[in-house]
Amino acid sequence: MRILPITFGIKNKNSVINSQTLSTPLHQNSIPENNTDTFTANNSDISFNGKYSTFITNKNELKKLAKNGHLGCIWCGGSMFTQNELDMFQHVSKRLSSSGELFSRVMLHFKDYLPSERIKLVKQISNYSRAFPNNDLKYILKKMTPSAEKRLIHKQYFILHNIQKLKPELPTELHKDFDILINHSKHRIKEIPYVSEYSAKEFCYQLNKLAKTLPLKEKEEILKIAQILTHPIFKEIDQTLPEKWLKRVYLQAKINPNRKGNYLSPHNFNAKDKLKLILLNNITEKAKNNNNLSIIKLCELTKNKILGVPVKVQFSNKAFTYKLYEILENVKNEKLRNKFEKQIKKLPTSLSNKDAFIVKYKNEPTEIIISKLLADSLVTIEHITPILRNTSDKELKLINKNLSKNNRIIRGIDNIDNWALAHNWCNLLHGCKNIKNEDFPFSKEAGIKYFKTLINDVNQGLLSADSVINMAKNYFEQTGIKIKLNGMKYTKE
Ligand SMILES: [Zn+2]
Prior knowledge:
- The protein is mostly helical.
- The chain contains 20 helices and four strands.
């Protein structure tokens, strides 16, 4: 059998991983040879000799400029992975996770691509790998988990404590809900089982996320059954069910009432909870047919909630924030709301805190962990002036009515004049936030370097000078940073 060395060809600080240093054997069939064109060291598919007869005008062509670190992120200046490159990591993820030492060495080679907390994480993996040589990544992460959990709990408790200190400022009628949320959150953080409240909305939200990987037909069937759980009838006090309604539900969910476990008398004094369990059992059965363990687990957890059995629930910033905002919904005091918001923003996330990353993914297979670790470094199309996808013209008009002329928000256009390349995480961080002048959270030098590369690309005939001029205009509008386009050759389109 022929064996191939791992040769990552992504250029990093003008070096290519030396196949000698990474010559751990890899079975040839793991990387098809014809795949090398997606992972080569040279820039063969980006022509710098004006071979392109037309300028780059679409998103995919533009994204190719990120390849091999040619064009860095407009916001932080770091290198970005293309989707092909991430796919290649997936191809070799089994090999990578077979040794903590190999994994950290390869990742550190790509440190220009990773956010700072990720580099800290990789460095820690590297240290542990030295202490436990010849162990795989799973083993190393397992060794790292207890202390990561301890530090994370400490941090989360501290923030929760600060949030709790704001309670006296809340209207008294909200105190009860607030106390329950804090109490439950403490249980979640410490992973202590507690009788958790059942919420059909929460179940459907999580199911929706997990069902994404299912085949379309199965996904639709499962979501159709889950939808029944949100029917307003379940909120009514009477626990029996109208016979006609129940028949319709069975028909809609394609449940055979005569099969074992499916029978339900509508007059049963607990018919509603029983129906919920039957529906969840049917979802479980479908998930089992598709080997979807996470949906099976979610159904199990939800059934326990309905039955009042104490369950372990992992703390999630999203769920906590959602519930806290629900409580704050009717609080008019904006200053107080801002105080809460300030604390919520401090909650450690898997991106901002390496311990949170370890804890969040501690039960996942290493292939998933590797893909999560790298996914934030994917190259994305950033709209320099946000296009405000989720804001209608009417809403925008309303917002601008209350703003002074200088602060009015304009909607960006969706073409190359307003496109830039940015990391997935930088793109999310920008969102549609105001990043002008003193609020600029990114690196000014990164922007200058970004446009310097674009000037070269224009001179090589890859991009139109007009587009780059407009990009710089948009960049100035957004950030207040002026870019000099010295040395750019202007040729008429
Ligand atoms: Zn970035």
